[in-house]
Amino acid sequence: MSIRLIVGLGNPGPEYEQTRHNAGFWLVDNLANTLPGCRLQRESRYNAMLAKTTISGKEVWLLEPLTFMNRSGQSVGALARFFKIKPEEVLVVHDELDLAPGVAKLKKGGSSGGHNGLKDITAALGTQDYWRLRLGIGHPRNLQSQQAVADFVLHRPRKEEQPLIDESIDKSLRIIPQVVEGKFDVAMMQLHTA
Q1: Could you give the CA distance from residue 10 to residue 69 in angstroms, rounded to a whole number?
Q2: How many domains does the chain fold into?
Q3: 142 annotated ligand binder
Q4: Cα 138 vs. chain centroid, distance in angstroms?
Q5: CATH number at residue 91
Q6: Which of 25, 42, 83, 168 has the greatest number of CB atoms lying within 10 Å of its CB?
Q7: Strand order in 5-8's β-sheet?
Q8: What is the DSSP letter of 4?
Q9: Residue 190 in this model has a pLDDT that exceeds 80
Q10: Cα separation, 100 vs 17, whole angstroms
Q11: What is the pTM for the complete model shown?
């Protein structure tokens, strides 16, 4: 089984562009920029930024929903249904409160962990059985902050956190070819031990 759809999660609009919740967009933007001739374009049918590209000789869709985070499943579900993409062929890239900045983890399935984007995608796909690439952004309680989680994810990373998040995105980009080829164990070992 290989990955046919890579989804980056975030919120649309310039006011959210640099916020922690947009880490999934950051990775997909970086991925598109590294692929020859790949340009994300607005596709109103899916209410998303969309590109069709080739990675490791396989056709892959890159998708950034332009709905707000809690409605991400609309775009993902519509595209997956139209192109008959199975849940296990979907990789969702998202910010992860339970991982420190600089840490990235790949896993299949599991709960949404309170992440509204994942909740909506799970509802749209009818299963939790899709792949997730979790980009650590840290948690306010680990930073001795009283900031509410909803407020925390909608702010920019602190000056010292941004390079760590960028580094985890770089590490993650290096395993995308293996993930697309379905070499999940190899990808996980490389990502989790890097």
Answers
A1: 6
A2: 1
A3: no
A4: 16
A5: 3.40.50.1470
A6: 168
A7: 41-43, 48-55, 58-65, 5-8, 90-96, 131-136, 104-108
A8: -
A9: yes
A10: 20
A11: 0.96
Q: Please, which residues have CB within 8 angstroms of residue 32's CB and are 6 or more apart in sequence?
A: 38, 39, 40, 51, 53, 62
Per-residue confidence band for 194, with pLDDT thresholds at 50, 70 and 90: low
Q: 105 — phi, psi (to 5°)?
A: -135, 145
Question: Do residues 85 and 29 lie in contact, with contact meaning Cβ atoms separated by under 8 Å?
Answer: no
Annotated binding residue 46: no
pLDDT digits (tens, 9 = 90+) for 35-88: 999 999 999 999 999 999 999 999 999 999 999 999 999 999 999 999 999 999
**93: Cβ contacts below 8 Å, ≥ 6 apart:** 6, 7, 8, 9, 23, 24, 27, 28, 132, 133, 135, 172
Number of H helices, E strands in the chain: 6, 7
Residue in the structure block whose two tokens are 């509802």: 123
Tokens of 187: 């990808």
In degrees rounded to 5, what are phi and psi of residue 146?
Answer: -90, 0
Type of residue found at 101: P
On whether the CB atoms of residues 125 and 65 are closer than 8 A, the answer is no
Domain ranges, residue 114: 5-193
Catalytic residue flag (residue 21): yes
| Residue linked to tokens 């056709």 | 59
Q: Is 83 annotated as a binding residue?
A: no
Give residue 140's pLDDT: 87
Q: Is 70 labeled as ligand-binding? A: yes
